[in-house]
Design goal:
95 residues, 6-stranded antiparallel β-barrel, mainly beta
Length: 95
């Protein structure tokens, strides 16, 4: 798969009493500039393994949390990866 570019997005998340981050919804703009909201049905946080490039071509380090998530788009389940930059407090998705 070729290198993708990350796009900054809005994420609604929950923070547990233990400091865990749980992504709940994402909000992205479509090609017409209209916001689309998707509920995250399932997620799992991937282990941090130092600086590397993910399978979708995004460079990450130990300051990046990576979540594999499932959302429903037009009745179909889609898998996405969310990237949370701890230092910049920004959420990104590969596009």
């Amino acid at each position: 798969m070729g290198k993708m570019s990350p796009k900054t997005i809005d994420v609604i998340c929950q923070h547990t009493k233990d400091g865990e981050i749980i992504p709940m919804r994402i909000r992205v703009t479509d090609e017409d500039g209209v916001y689309q909201i998707f509920t995250i049905k399932e997620y799992r946080e991937l282990p941090r393994t130092g600086t590397h490039t993910t399978p979708d071509g995004i460079s990450v380090c130990n300051n990046t949390l990576v979540f594999e998530c499932k959302i429903i788009v037009f009745g179909q389940t889609r898998s996405i990866r969310l990237y949370y930059d701890i230092k910049q407090t920004l959420w990104k998705i590969a596009v």
